[in-house]
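S1.2 Input.
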Amino acid sequence: MKADGALVDRAIGHILALCATPSPTGFTAAAQGYALEALAAAGLEASSTRKGSVLCRLGGTGRPLVLAAHLDTLGAVVRSVKSDGRLRYSKIGGFPDLNVVTETCLVHTRGGKTFEGTFQPVDASVHVNTKLKDLKPDDETVEILLDERTKSREETLALGVGPGDIVSIDARPRLTGSGFIKSRHLDDKAASGILLALAEEAGQKRLRLGREVFLLFTTYEEVGHGGAVVPAPVEEFVSVDMGAVGEDLGCDEYKVSICAKDSNGPYDWDTTNALKAAAERAGCAYALDVYPSYGSDVEAALFAGQDLRHGLVGPGVYASHGYERTHRDGVANTLALLSEYIA
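S1.3 Output.
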């Protein structure tokens, strides 16, 4: 069955709100708080792990399953303060430096202050630097320019900014009239919003559960160990993450993706087949694809020694690890697949 429009709208509301909440890996408290409040408002009990993951049991009995999305995003830390007061950064997660050039950011200091800035090329004025067209972006040719009156290392340090401070990238979330959701960090806040909408359905007893279902929102996925600990007695783990969109792939922004293999190898044959069958029963527009440059939370659990069947689904997201785009149809198809799979 198709997801109804009100459910899709609620998921999109959560997506936009989460995208507007800074949460680079290691700095996720605000996003964790959002998830905990949303689950409590749905009438569900949730808890936090020592690593900051949020766990919630939806209900049901038998064949326990965890659906997991991650709240953490790409970002950076301040690596050093330069002699002219500008900042050198070190990336959190894997993204090309090109994708942050001219982006607004926030520097979150360990003293509790927040400063706005911009990722800019070194010597960024095109009317002065005629070599900008040849720029090869990296942490030596791109820097963070604080929007403060500082022209020396000493002045910047005096503000309270220093090495180890966290940098979040302005997500710029928006919903277009044609149903496109554009934002940074749809990986993986699109899936997180979808799971929160499902939780609301469960809390209102509108979601049929044919098995025991847990939701897990992790906080270290972008650095590889978000799902390493599974704080529930489950036999199957399905990551709900973005579907990749690009050359030779069947997925687009309107479909739900089912991943058969990524950089760490194939996903469980039976789980993947069951997800495919659920998509077909629900009448979803879906694609079964192979993502050679991808990894997920569920694989972190397997590498940590968990004995689980594993799968991966999610809405199609274009321009991954950049200014990303999906569509309400992709959200709707993901909701429909998951609702059918857990029924």
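S1.4 Remarks. Residues 182 and 325 are 4 Å apart (CA to CA).
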